[in-house]
Amino acid sequence: MVEPRMKVQGLKAWFGSSIALRDIDLDIADKQVTAIIGPSGCGKSTFVRCLNRMHEVTPNARAEGKVLLDGKDIYDPAVNPVALRRYVGMVFQKPNPFPTMSIRENVLAGLTLLGTRAKDESGLVERSLRQAALWEEVRGGLDRPGVSLSGGQQQRLCIARALAMEPEVLLMDEPCSALDPIATAKVEELILELRRRYTIVIVTHNMQQAQRVADTTAFFYMGSLVEHAATTKIFGNPTERRTADYVSGRFG
Amino acid sequence: MSRLYTVDAQAVAAERAFRAIAILALVLPLCLLALLFGGTLIDGFSRLSFDFLSGFPSRRPEEAGILPALAGTMALMLLTAAMAIPVGVGAAIYLEEYAPPGKITTLIEVNIRNLAGVPSIIYGLLGLEVFVRSLQMDRSLIAGACTLALLLLPMVVMASREALRTVPRMYREAAWALGAEKWTGIRRVVLPMCLPGILTGVILSLARAIGETAPLITLGALTYVSFLPTSLKSAFTALPIQIFNWTSRPQAGFHVAAAAGIVVLLTMMLLLNATAIVLRMRLQKKVTW
After folding, report:
1. pLDDT of B171-228, one tens digit each?
2. B191 in A contact zone (CB under 8 Å)
3. Is A118 on the interface with B (CB under 8 A)?
4. Which of A119, A166, A198, B260 is 20 to 30 A (C-alpha) from B233?
5. Of B177, B192, B288, the CB nearest to A54
6. Interface residue B174 vs chain A (CB under 8 A)
7. CATH for B65-286?
8. Among A54, A98, A100, whose Cβ lies nearest the Cβ of B176?
9. Residues A174/A204, Cβ–Cβ less than 8 Å
10. Which domains does chain A have, with CATH numbers?
């Protein structure tokens, strides 16, 4: 296995007094796609939201444990979660380009929100949109509103917006669950392309999707990590009985 | 399949009856409003002229003009807006985005809601005691504006919170996930999205305040002013006060002047409301989601 980019050690998370994650240990390999699967409410989303400390923005939510990014604990009290999120980008379930901004402004939104500007804005916009496989479709109308695009294009715009910040890790929380099959195929193709440059963690409900895009797959159940192994092993010959039951559709 | 062709006559009749009641409920108040406005317009039509708008009050009803009241109302509105909008919108942002949920926040919320329902004359008494007497502003323009600003605040806070709440949480999260500080996300993402709503709410509350008479009378706005406000400390009058004064005179000529004054006041209100609608439509064209 490749040297891990992130190491999760003894991660616990709560919503108020109810526990959402119990003692998760998981290594996330560099420049690979790690898929997180499991039934609804098993803690998949909570887990990825702990990786950029977005979990704690929910009122009454908190997390404990260690998450090492390049050897440094992001839960160290000295770490500024706001700064951390620039290095760990995130794409959400529902496409959410900013409605008041054009396509171009959406791509640059991360910098605008930091109060800085890129030296070569047009270059950055083109590069990010190309990386998100959206450039050819929108190059003629960068000043149109971001929300005038189709759902799949909007999601790729959100990916471009995250990539413009040049993150180390890209988290994707069910990025295709609101998209039709054709838009999904495009995003999956894009993920395989992005894998060369970025470390990607993707939460998915769709087991075929995990098999198509992920190098390794982690199966979560009731807030615990049941099994994490190469995707072919998880879907072909899992060690745990519960994993086998879930991937074969016997429950969940 | 014959059930496909049966008609429940009773249900159809009920449907028609309900629709008729609903239409009546809409048309009746509109007719009353039109009647009122039309009647006032006819009564005051003979006095509506440039001279009326640019004239000063007079003992002779046919010469009485409305300029000081018009200028007073405009100055009041500007000052009131300048005070109530920043504070009200700021308070709304704090309550909606920052305040930790809990007993204190709930207490504040309940009180703001209650304040919006307090009769305006109470605000007048408060203004008289606090601004006119304690802060020694006298019966001045600024004392009137401060009082009206207090009256407006709860409405501005509630309208702004309503507007802030229409912005789905996912946009705040999108901003934070890009590494934005909380305030930057609010300023660059949330506020632009709900600006039309905030503006509409603010303008509608202003349109309500423009007609407030009770607090200004309590405060001691003058009823006979033959000069224009020149500073914040000027004595002043306002349209509703002037109208109130004219209607309480015995001469019929003053009643005509009052009708003309009402037309001016209603026109200003309608203009403000129209501005709110136009602003909302223009801004919403840019903001679609």
Report:
1. 999 999 999 999 999 999 999 999 988 998 898 888 888 888 888 888 877 767 777 7
2. no
3. no
4. B260
5. B177
6. yes
7. 1.10.3720.10
8. A54
9. yes
10. 4-96+169-247 (3.40.50.300)
